[in-house]
Amino acid sequence: MTDTLAKKFGYSEKVMDHFKNPRNVGVLEDADVTSKVGSVACGDLIKLYLKFDPNDDKIKDVKFESYGVCCEHCDELHDDGDG
């Protein structure tokens, strides 16, 4: 997506940066929590993996796998939720 189209559709620079340079895609084999949301019928599915710091219960690491639309919003979770 070009910067012009991104502005036309109202995507922020932060969203576009994560769209162009995804950071948190993958699997945490030793995740403390996993969650899967979506519908195979509509083609959107997100699986989220969280690892917590046992000393203060803050998020230590986050990864996601996503199939379908709007994957860049999951990538922002790490920036917003990181300890």
Alpha-carbon distance between the two ends: 31 Å
Point out poorly predicted stretches: none
At CATH level 3, the topology is Sufe protein. Chain: A
Number of helices: 3
Structural class call reads alpha+beta
Radius of gyration: 14 Å
Reading side by side through the largest sheet, how are the strands ordered?
Answer: 1-2-3
What does this structure look like?
The chain is an alpha+beta fold and 83 residues long. The protein has one domain (3-81): Sufe protein. Chain: A (Alpha-Beta Complex), CATH 3.90.1010. It is 30% helix and 30% strand. It is built from three helices and three strands. Strands 1-2-3 form a three-stranded antiparallel beta sheet, covered by helices on one side. A hairpin with a 4-residue loop joins strand 1 and strand 2. Helix 2 (13-20) crosses helix 3 (71-81). The longest helix is centred in the C-terminal third of the chain and has 11 residues, at 71-81. The model has no long low-confidence stretch (mean pLDDT 80).
